[in-house]
Amino acid sequence: TIYDFRGLKYRMEYIGTYDNISYYNDTIATIPEATINAIKTIKNVDTLIFGGMDRKIDYKDFILFLKDSYINNFICMPSTGTKIGKILERETKKNIYFVDNLEDAYKISKEKTEKDKSCLLSPAASSYEYFKNFEEKGKIFERLVKKG
Prior knowledge:
Blueprint: E1 13-18, E2 21-25, H1 32-41, E3 45-50, H2 60-68, E4 73-76, H3 80-91, E5 95-98, H4 102-112, E6 117-121, H5 134-147
């Protein structure tokens, strides 16, 4: 049973490798600690897509973690991603991209993620601002990745 266990849907879920980029769907990560743990677990994350509804969570430790991480590209979605991205822009030389929707986030990830590395969607925030729930967001991301 353990050998056949595939993990939870939308929790560090491997979608597949397309154009030599591995894509992971972690939309169930609605708090910063979950996103941090996903980054620590999934090796070689070059691009992180994050952000969602602002629930007034303290993101100070999350920002420090991202600044010191090996991740090169941050794709920031409204509204928490936008706020955090603006801080990262001032405090790091990493690549910061601001988008309004998941389709644009995927397009940038496809262009900017280094080959043989990974792109991780892990919001560190709730999806309610633009999606019914994290499942809807996860399904859309998976569809975009598989469609190419």
